[in-house]
Specification:
Length: 159
């Protein structure tokens, strides 16, 4: 490996970037410098394109509507100014580049949503099971028949 490739890979190992595709709604937290002050600003929008760059050169194009005007930002994923990226929603799309979304407004601009990830689905199911177990424990406690051992068993069954 030559020196240039090694330097590029250093930037890759430092950041944890989620898998991003066209059609995702992401929230990008960027560092903004104003004079000597520095703050973090969030930019939430639809990923209309994943750039052709690979590795450290990877970019995404994020679009949102601000006061009736479309705003697009090309965001380098491994930039030092990008604090973190969160994937809020995933949508089912059939194209790699969603430039046609620029001409759409209102109902025609809707995309069909899918779950963000299997891990988040499993986490939601687990939280629901734990909540249900707590409700059952509270119900039994109100009746006066619950003990600490029964409560522990009900939480284990929920998981």
């Amino acid at each position: 490996m030559n020196i240039a490739e090694e330097l590029r890979n250093i930037g890759l190992s430092n950041k944890k970037i989620p898998e991003i595709q066209a059609g995702d709604t992401v929230k990008v937290y960027q560092k903004i410098k104003e004079g000597e002050k520095e703050r973090i600003q969030a930019f939430e929008g639809l990923v209309i394109a994943v750039g052709s760059g690979t590795g450290v050169n990877a970019v995404i194009t994020v679009r949102k509507i601000v006061e009736g005007v479309g705003v697009e930002k090309v965001i380098p994923l491994y930039s030092t100014n990008v604090e973190k990226i969160e994937v809020k929603k995933r949508s089912k799309v059939r194209r790699a580049k969603l430039y046609y979304m620029k001409n759409r407004t209102g109902k025609s601009a809707r995309l069909k949503e899918t779950l963000v990830s299997d891990k988040e689905f499993e986490k939601a199911v687990e939280e629901l099971a734990v909540q249900k177990a707590k409700e059952e424990a509270e119900k039994a406690k109100a009746e006066g028949t619950n003990t600490v051992e029964n409560e522990a068993v009900s939480v284990e069954e929920a998981k």
